[in-house]
Specification:
By secondary structure, this protein is an alpha/beta fold. It has 9 helices and 8 strands. Helix content is 36%, strand content 17%. An 8-stranded parallel sheet has the order 1-8-7-6-5-4-3-2.
Length: 231
């Protein structure tokens, strides 16, 4: 089966004073999803944005032809449940969270699905993936952190590739057994010069922040990433 690759620019690296324009520009440049890094200064040492920002930006997350661009919310928060539901109401399409931030991972996944969103689990660089085995039937997305969460602009941690390979095997086995596909996303230090190796390890969705928003021409970066993925 041919993989469909998706590029999800992270607005954590965008110009916060111009968020609506930044969203429109990066969608016009070819973004597949918009990635929201939500930080609470509790689970991670930083504070970003809440559901009101998501709600304000929802109307900007559309392509020129009027189709909706998925908003991919990564919750680096503890506790999870109330904010997950608030983001679902604010227009999120996918909501992922860290298993160690939820008292009851299965229940949190059920809440997200019941709110009409796709649900994902996020694994930090030093975190095992054992929990996935017990809830894989409720998961639509697995996000591997290739940096420690909390700040944009960090360097890629190479050990993440082994975790991606392991997850790819689990996801492929699940698809063979159920026919259901799960997206495998990687976030942290993704750039044009390493996106191919991350894809080779098994990822199909790539979060890039400063690699895109730090450049003068968003389309040039996204096109260069796609060229690497197509190579």
């Amino acid at each position: 089966m041919d993989k469909i690759f998706r590029i999800a620019p992270s607005i954590l690296s965008a110009d916060f004073a111009q968020l609506g324009n930044e969203l429109r520009d990066v969608i016009q440049a070819g973004a597949d999803w918009i990635h929201f890094d939500v930080m609470d200064n509790h689970y991670v040492p930083n504070l970003s944005f809440g559901p009101m920002v998501c709600q304000a930006l929802r109307k900007h997350a559309v392509r020129a032809d009027g189709t909706r661009v998925p908003i991919d919310v990564h919750l680096m928060v503890q506790p999870v449940d109330a904010l997950a539901q608030a983001f679902a109401q604010a227009g999120a399409d996918l909501i992922s969270f860290h298993p160690d931030a939820s008292a009851h991972v299965d229940r949190t996944l059920q809440l997200i699905k019941a709110a009409g969103c796709q649900a994902g689990l996020v694994f930090n660089p030093a975190e095992p993936i054992d929990v996935l085995e017990w809830v894989i039937d409720k998961v639509d997305l697995v996000l591997v952190m290739s940096v420690n969460p909390g700040f944009g602009g960090q360097s890629f941690i190479p050990g993440a590739l082994r975790k991606v390979e392991k997850l790819r095997r689990l996801i492929d086995t699940h698809r063979q057994q159920t026919g259901r596909d799960i997206r495998l996303e990687v976030d942290g230090g993704i750039k044009t010069d390493n996106i191919r190796s991350v894809a080779d390890a098994g990822a199909d969705t790539f979060v890039a922040g400063s690699a895109i928003f730090g450049q003068p021409d968003y389309r040039a970066v996204i096109d260069a990433m796609r060229a690497e993925l197509a190579a």
